[in-house]
C-alpha cells in the first residue's frame, strides 16, 4: 500500500487516467513522469516500479486502448447472424474505432502510431487478435456456404490488404477528416460478392 492509500494496481490505473488527460490537453512532448508522480503524491521510485520511462507509460495507454478495441470487435464475432454481414460490420467498427481515436485523442494516437511503426510486442499481439477474429468470421462464412473457402487464411489476407487504408494508423490519420464508411462498406461488399460468386460456381 502506498502513502496515498491506493493499492499498486490502483496507482497504475490512476496514472494512466491522469496521463491520458494531460496528454489530451497539453501533448505528450510536454508530459513528464516527475509531474505525474507529484500529482499522484508518490515517489519517483514508486512510479518507476510500474513504468520504467515515459515511453513505457505511453505504451501502457496504447495497449489498454487496443485491448478495449479487441474486446469490442470480439463481441461482433459472437453475434448470431450471417457471417458475411458480420464481416462488414466488423470492418466498419474497426475503422470507426481508429478514426474516433484520431479525432478525439490526436496526441495519444501519435504515440500509438509510433509504437505501431516500431512493431512493439503489444502491437503485434493486437494484430494477431485482429487476424484471428477475422479468420473466425471467414471460416464461419465458408461453413455457411456464403463464400469460397479454399484458403480462409488467404481470404483474410486479401480482405485486410484491400482495406488497409481504413485501418492502418498512418493512413487513418491521413484521411481523418473524410467520412469513408460508405466507401469501406462498398469495398467489402464487392470483395464478398466476388467470393460468393466463386462459392456458387
* Largest sheet data: none
Radius of gyration: 20 Å
CATH topology of the largest domain: Tetracycline Repressor, domain 2
Task: Report low-confidence residues grouped into runs of 5 or more.
Answer: none
| Average pLDDT reading | 88
How would you characterize the overall build of this protein?
It is a single chain. Helices cover 75% and strands 0% of the residues. The chain folds into two domains: 8-48, Orthogonal Bundle (Arc Repressor Mutant, subunit A); 58-200, Tetracycline Repressor, domain 2. It has 201 residues and is mainly α. It has ten helices and no strands. The radius of gyration is 20 Å and the shape is elongated. The mean pLDDT is 88. The longest helix has 24 residues, at 54-77.
Task: Please give the structural blueprint.
Layout: H1 8-26, H2 33-40, H3 44-48, H4 54-77, H5 83-104, H6 106-117, H7 121-143, H8 152-162, H9 169-174, H10 181-200
Task: Summarize the entry for a quick read.
Helices cover 75% and strands 0% of the residues. It has helices at 8-26, 33-40, 44-48, 54-77, 83-104, 106-117, 121-143, 152-162, 169-174, 181-200.
